[in-house]
Amino acid sequence: MNPTRLFALTALLLIGGSATASSFVGTTDAIGNSLAGTAEASSDATSSLRDDKVVLAARDDAASFVASQGAIRGVRLEAALNHIRQHNPDLRADDLQLARAILSL
After folding, report:
1. Burial class of residue 11 in the structure, from the number of CB atoms within 10 Å of its CB (0-12 exposed, 13-18 middle, 19+ buried)
2. What would the pLDDT profile of 23-39 be if each residue is shown by its tens digit?
3. Which end of the chain, C or N, has fewer beta carbons within 10 A?
4. Strand, coil or helix: what is 92?
5. Overall pTM > 0.85
6. Per-residue pLDDT at 11 exceeds 90
7. How many folded domains does the chain comprise?
8. C-beta separation of 89 from 31 below 8 A
9. Distance, CA of 8 to chain centre
10. Mean pLDDT, residues 3-19
11. Which distant-in-sequence residues (6+ apart) come within 8 Å of 70 by Cβ?
């Protein structure tokens, strides 16, 4: 094989490998920051709800909601979200954040 072609192929492989590693690091950082934000936003709301029967009954629906990225909304999850928002009117978490918080109980 021509040394120039071999050098070009090696350079392409190195550049491609570093781009993949860079995008992986960026993705994991973004996911980590998102989870940290979710935990901070929902920790105050969930600390008083650990023993709440309405919220605990919604865990299966919350799991479906999170797994489907919000497409599946069960009746128990809707009741729990309404219940949480009634007891915490200043809460600034969206439905997906609250569903993740319910799963963490």
Report:
1. exposed
2. 554 555 555 555 555 55
3. N
4. coil
5. no
6. no
7. 1
8. no
9. 40
10. 64
11. 95, 96
How far apart CA 76 and CA 60 sit, in angstroms, is 9
Query: What DSSP designation does 49 have?
Result: T
Q: Which residue has the tokens 């993705």?
A: 27
Mention every residue, 6+ apart, whose C-beta is less than 8 A from residue 73: 61, 65
H helix intervals, the chain: 3-47, 53-56, 59-67, 75-87, 95-104
User: Whole-number mean pLDDT of the chain?
Assistant: 76
CA distance 81 to 79: 6
Q: Which token pair is 99? A: 């569903």
Residue pLDDT, tens place only, 65-85: 999 999 999 999 999 999 999
3-state secondary structure of 91: coil
Q: Which domain holds residue 16?
A: 3-104
